Amino acid sequence: MKYFTSLTFLSATYKPFYFYKENYINEIDGIVDCVVYGVEIPNQNDGKAGMAMLYLEDKYEITPMWLANIYSSLARQLPIYSVPCFLRISRSKPVVIEHGEGDKNMTPTFKHKKNALAADGYESCGTDKLFARVNDKYLPMTEKIIEDTRSGTIKF
What we know:
This protein is an alpha+beta fold. 33% of the residues lie in helices and 19% in strands. It is built from 5 helices and 5 strands; from the N terminus they run H-H-E-E-H-E-H-E-E-H. It has a 5-stranded mixed beta sheet with strand order 1-2-3-4-5, with helices on both faces.
């Protein structure tokens, strides 16, 4: 029994840091589910910028105050370099239908396909709303923010 306890402890210790971000984000009011993944930004540092896909309840409105609440909650609980650079907010929770007829972002075992989400990038994501972290607040993604990100004016 002692052997299994230490094995469980080791496995819990080495979980990726994204797992802990997802736990913090899921505690915020209005968020049904979330997944955190990295997206590549051209002409920026090596590595990837953090992006959080949030599934929002229908009764919540996306307002500047709500976005400020998300940022302040995350900035309080996480180091600043761990706060997601981009938010992708969806109203619809992905549904998995058996035999591959479901959402492309979920597996039949209800896990998120982060590679498919990361391939969408940070510039356009269909009907989902996009927000970028600029000057310690989340702003709606505009062509100017996209262009400034590409040119390196906005750094992440």
